[in-house]
Design goal:
Helix content is about 40%, strand content about 20%. By secondary structure, the chain is α/β, with parallel strands linked by helices. About 50% of the residues are buried.
Length: about 450
């Protein structure tokens, strides 16, 4: 029996293993999902929501087990892991928003009545990442189930144990085969992508894998939502609150050891305030310590050796092309990357163009804000961006070619707003009424 073995990225400790799904089994799993979906869709949406609410409460009931696995398997602090699991408690609210979004719309006049229905797509395959393995799966699973679809989750092979525990908790209440799990790597994911019985692919991960999924899904013209990478910039104008901007810069660069799609990966600061801003950056970054549990902010491990090598190569490339280190944390064990501030980052460096996904603060100064805007827009990414300042902040922000913009704060919206990227940071989106409707088929009925 082939298994996926899971190891603690902080220590290399063996945690456990799960059986790897055989490729020959996947078509049977899809067929079971198709059969379960028919009965699930026959329920009223209110009955589905009641079951989803009960299932999500099982996740919260199993919080200690699931968050403990998340902490050990992914490496984030136990506090962050618990917070991620507790985010599942908002399922009933999300489901109600989906219900409102997909309610039939009726238009009438001149003896004609048109009804716009939002019907289930069928089988939804969700391919989720390792950096937020519970919340990012949950964000797509709940709308998909609420809309009357069945779901097959293919989690990252880096975090199979926590994904299994999460699915097992939901399945204490969900009907059989409405939610199934496929364990494995790229091969298992691709089997779902090309399967004739899968109607929708929701993927969160790298741009490169997203392109492959989009290409392979074209054979059956599947609906896809691709939430891909980012290279988010922070632009600090001369009238910004320097302390607030520096605090945000450090927090958003180092959160989850920088392993976050909307991490601040490049900072542009007006040259007239650059020295003060750098002093504040160094002040705040010193509050971060290595470890998994602490009252202070912590830097967790990098998920694996390949990712660590990628980060180190980008740092070396930047140093060879003129960047310099203005702060470096203590020497950490090999599973970690010491938090670092790199100054004099220029556009020709890899670290200026490619997603880093590590605890590195990358700094450039500008005399003309147009240069910062042009550098931000020169990458193929366009997930989020942030501007700190007052007089011209909104004017600058609106010139950024990104899906989500923050002014004097993070880029995430309030309430039921889209989580959306521009350019090569995404295709389709979830969140908001329009996002929820992407888990459905629009059907127009006209009566005369």
């Amino acid at each position: 029996m082939e298994t996926l073995k899971s190891y603690n990225p902080a220590s290399g400790e063996y945690i456990g293993e799960v059986r790897k799904t055989k490729l020959s089994e996947i078509e049977s799993i899809v067929q079971k999902s198709q059969e379960a979906q028919i009965n699930w869709a026959d329920l009223t949406i209110d009955d589905r929501i009641k079951i989803i609410d009960k299932a999500s409460k099982k996740v919260i009931k199993n919080k200690d087990k699931i968050s403990g696995l998340l902490h050990r398997e992914m490496g984030k602090s136990l506090r962050s892991a618990e917070s991620e699991v507790l985010s599942c408690s908002y399922s009933i609210h999300t489901a109600q928003l989906v219900k409102n979004a997909i309610a039939p719309q009726v238009r009438s006049g001149h003896g004609i009545e048109t009804i716009v229905n939002y019907t289930p797509l069928g089988v939804c395959a969700i391919i989720s990442p390792w950096n937020y393995p519970v919340s990012m799966a949950h964000w797509m699973i709940i709308p998909a189930l609420t809309a009357g679809n069945s779901v097959i989750l293919k989690p990252s092979e880096e975090t199979p144990l926590v994904a299994q525990a999460y699915v097992d908790a939901l399945n204490e209440e969900l009907p059989p085969n409405v939610l199934q799990i496929v364990q494995g790597g790229d091969e298992q994911g691709n089997e779902l992508v090309v399967s004739d019985g899968v109607d929708f692919i929701g993927f969160t991960g790298s741009r490169e894998v997203g392109k492959k999924i989009m290409s392979n899904a074209a054979g059956t013209l599947k609906r896809v939502i691709l939430e891909l990478g980012g290279k988010d910039s922070l632009i600090v104008l001369k009238d910004a609150d320097i302390e607030q901007a520096a605090r945000f810069a450090i927090a958003n660069s180092l959160e989850n050891a920088g392993q976050m799609c909307i991490s601040t990966e490049r900072i542009f600061v007006d040259a007239t305030i650059a020295d003060d801003f750098k002093r504040q950056l160094i002040n705040y970054i010193q509050h971060y310590n290595r470890g998994a549990n602490s009252d202070q902010p912590v830097i967790g491990p990098v998920i694996n050796a390949n990712q660590r090598k990628r980060i180190l190569n980008q740092i070396q490339d930047a140093l060879s092309k003129g960047a310099n280190i203005i702060y470096r944390g203590a020497v950490y064990p090999e599973q970690y990357i010491s938090p670092m501030i790199l100054d004099n980052i220029t556009d020709e460096m890899q670290i200026a163009k490619e997603e880093t996904f590590g605890p590195i603060v990358c700094l450039s100064t500008f005399d003309n804000v147009e240069d910062a805007i042009n550098s931000t827009n020169s990458t193929g990414f366009g997930l989020g961006g942030v501007v700190y300042g007052h007089k011209d902040a909104e004017k600058v922000a609106l010139q950024l070619q990104v899906g989500m913009i923050g002014i004097n704060g993070g880029a995430g919206g309030i309430g039921d707003t889209p989580w959306v990227g521009a350019k090569q940071s995404g295709y389709g989106y979830h969140g908001s009424p329009d996002g929820h409707r992407q888990f459905t088929q629009v059907q127009v009925i006209t009566k005369r």
